[in-house]
Amino acid sequence: MKDIIGQPVDRVDGRLKVTGKAPYSAEFALKDLAYGVTVQSTIASGRIQTIDTHAAESLPGVIAVITYKNSMSLHTLTGGDPGQGKYGERDLLPLQSDRIFYDGQHIAIVVAETFQIAEYGAALIKVDYEIEKPIYEIEQAIQDAFQPASALGGGEAQTHRGDADKALQDVEIKIEQTYTTPVYHHNAMEPHATIAEWTGKKLTLYDSTQSVVGSKNAIATILGVPPDDVRLYSYFIGGGFGSKGFTWPHSVMAPMAAKHVGRPVKIVLSRQQMFTSNGHRSRTIQKISLGSDKAGKLIAVKHLTTSETSFVDEFVETAGVATKMIYDVPNLDATHSIVRLNKGTPCPTRAPGEAPGTYGLEVAMDELAYQLNIDPIALRLVNYADKHPHTGQPWSEKNLKQCYERGARAIGWSQRNPIPRSMKEGDLLVGYGMATATYPANRSASSAKIQLFPDGHAVLYCATQDIGTGTYTILTQICAQGLGLPMASVQCKLGDSKLPKGPNSGGSQVSASAGSAVWAAALTLKSKAIQLAIADKRSPLFGQSEDNIQTDNGKIFVTGSLEKGETYAQLITRKGLPTLETEITTNVSTREGAPPAQSSADGEKANDPDQQSAAVKADEGVDHKKYAFHSFGAQFVKVLVDPVLGTVRVDKIVGVMDIGKVLNLKTAINQIMGGMIFGIGMALMECTIYDPTNGRVVTRDLTDYLVPVNADMPEFDIQFIDIPDPYISPVGARGIGEIGITGITAAIANAIYHATGKRVRDLPITPDKLLS
Alpha helices, DSSP H only, in 643-696? Predict the structure, then answer.
């Protein structure tokens, strides 16, 4: 059978999207639907003294106004794992008190017959505040910074090896600089939205989320409802980038309002509201010290990051997380401190930690290369880590040297004059820069169910979600190849919390996690079909050995004898089965003590390992004790800078990625390109500004918060090593959604230095900084 996995096939959901038939969470037309618009605070710190709702309540068409005075009571969610449900404001449940902790905090909801009436009603509410002086910049409370013991999900927040301070005192060459990144906002195309409907004690939610199961669990717990009484749908998501990985107040307020008025209620946040109430990437201040010998071998590294969190929860932007593993250095301190500010809680943003952290580290490495007069690639090769430098583990797979070689060749690195401000095209300065990309390879437990029907088509079920990255397509490819079916005969169903539990879309883990479960389920189901056939005297395959059977295009046949066999449809119909099905759960925490995969056949549950295919048995999980799992890549950039205007144009980007097996070349290129575009915005234009007098967000829409558009696009050359990782999963794929943004911002900054001779360490790199 010709491989389907890896082919650049079109998205299976593409036609639905371009014809407007893909249902997003705000687009379900429920009977008797009411509309909710939230009212937000206009101060950053203080208390509500009075809240006058009379005018809104008197407005024709307004059904109810809900504030902390008449709201239902809620329950605190203590969990911190997005996969199990993570609420973004642990100590601030919506509409429970008069306390204000940040600008844009939700303080009321107006429910009306139409969105327009609800919006007008919200504008009529008058609030008087007791105002306190807000703390909205890290420098205002730097003396109160503290070091958390752990990061999101229990990850390590403080890393030490050797004695970095002592080693830095004795090194021959030293770099000590501070690199800063501003607050960034996710700005997914689809705004956050939730529809809630109660039927008795049962709650149905349509929510734009990166975790259908986690969000369901979080909302159920906060409402005090048994999770089994809640069902959440999220069929299509128009981007999330981390902001939809947490549950935010509006997703709780929608069922609160629906319960209050006895009707389904829809809340869709405006673009302006999304700048205050669904997270952001923390501002970081990164103090980096590099010490090396004259050959460039790193002796010591210190990467000390200070970032922000809120007064109502704790989030750590772990900018030093890549520093502990990317280069071979014996002495290292990578620490993280956080400061509480009167802002909403930060949250993961595409490659949290690695994106800002590789900017700081990889610019520092470029500075060291120039000080040593060493080629930046050569410097990285001198410090190449053949094994994880902190744990000593071998990599599950690493081909970073090939990434450097191929990227340098594609960008024309050898023709680069290394002297800053030495290259021109017409009146424009030309610069080349490079940096290393990396991101962890994650995989979590996942389940998948596949049913084969008498007409020969298969349906795949998994309670994960497609946030726009191509999950529907990739899982269809894996299922089709595993069963030996054409893709057109496989239907993929995701985005429903009642389906077998899949992973959340965070940490670049869906392909390795859900993909492994789907592959295992497909192989197991194929094996069961073959066993049915070879045990059936009416089958042409009766008495054959399973090892001598193949499948292709929906047919089961003897190897080398396509005519000697039958189709899935003929087998299932003759057996009189409504379906032939299998459900598999893969456990991947470690290979030691992992329970066997669970399976079902003919609609009956079965735990017999002998019924599982050899390929399924071989997937014993991810051995974190034996191997270190990371993806790697190399980013190369060419920029053109106008020396008179200070404007920067990214002319070409070359990215070569080592991400294991490529599951779909088209969607893989799309994902890396998207990350690179994120990096252009991060480097050159994106920046959230706060009013220095009151801490309120100033850049509250896409007029003032600039993002890259079509006119900013360079030439892209995206390549993959495409060597399967044999230890991460049976499909050999590591995650790809986030690595594309790592390293690219530094590569752009390094290229600008090469073009201009001016080193800017405070992002974004805007014309004023190049001309000053």
Answer: 665-684
**574: which strand partners?**
none
Alpha-helical (H) ranges within 229-353 are 249-261, 323-326
Taking residue 240's Cβ as centre, other Cβ atoms within 10 Å add up to 28
Burial 154-164 (b: 16+ CB within 10 A, else e): eeebbbebeeb
Is 172 one of the annotated active-site residues of the chain?
no
Phi, psi for residue 697 in degrees, rounded to 5: -70, 130
46 vs 135: CA distance, rounded Å = 12
User: What would the pLDDT profile of 227-248 be if each residue is shown by its tens digit?
Assistant: 999 999 999 999 999 999 999 9
Query: For residue 669, what are its two tokens?
Result: 């290129």
Pairing state of beta strands 265-268 and 34-40?
parallel
pTM: 0.96
Closest CA relative to residue 764, chosen from 696, 691, 699: 699
Residue type, 172: E
Chain centroid to CA 310: how far? 21
d(CA 157, CA 172): 30
Catalytic residue among 197, 354, 397, 738: 738
Counting residues of the chain whose pLDDT is more than 90, the rounded percentage is 93
Report whether 132 contacts 311 (CB < 8 A).
Answer: no
pLDDT-derived band at 611 (thresholds 50, 70, 90) equals: very low
pLDDT digits (tens, 9 = 90+) for 77-124: 887 676 778 999 999 999 999 999 999 999 999 999 999 999 999 999
Q: Which two tokens stand for residue 718?
A: 């995206």
Token look-up 């790809």 returns 736
Gyration radius (Cα) of the chain, Å: 27
Provide the pairing of β-strand 599-601 with 580-586: unpaired
- Give the tokens for residue 88: 């973004």
Q: Where are the beta strands (DSSP E) in 486-644?
A: 490-493, 549-552, 555-558, 561-567, 580-586, 599-601, 604-606, 630-641
Q: Which residue has the tokens 């509409």?
A: 95
Rounded distance, CA 368 to CA 31, Å? 64
Letter for the amino acid at 766?
Answer: T
C-alpha closest to that of 293 among 178, 374, 358: 374
Q: Find out whether the peptide bond into 764 is cis, omega within 30 degrees of 0.
A: yes
Residue 405 class from Cβ within 10 Å (0-12 exposed, 13-18 middle, 19+ buried)? Answer: middle
Q: Give the C-alpha separation, 320 to 315, whole Å.
A: 14
Burial-class residue 224 by CB neighbours within 10 Å (0-12, 13-18, 19+): exposed
In whole angstroms, what is the distance from residue 429 CA to residue 754 CA?
9
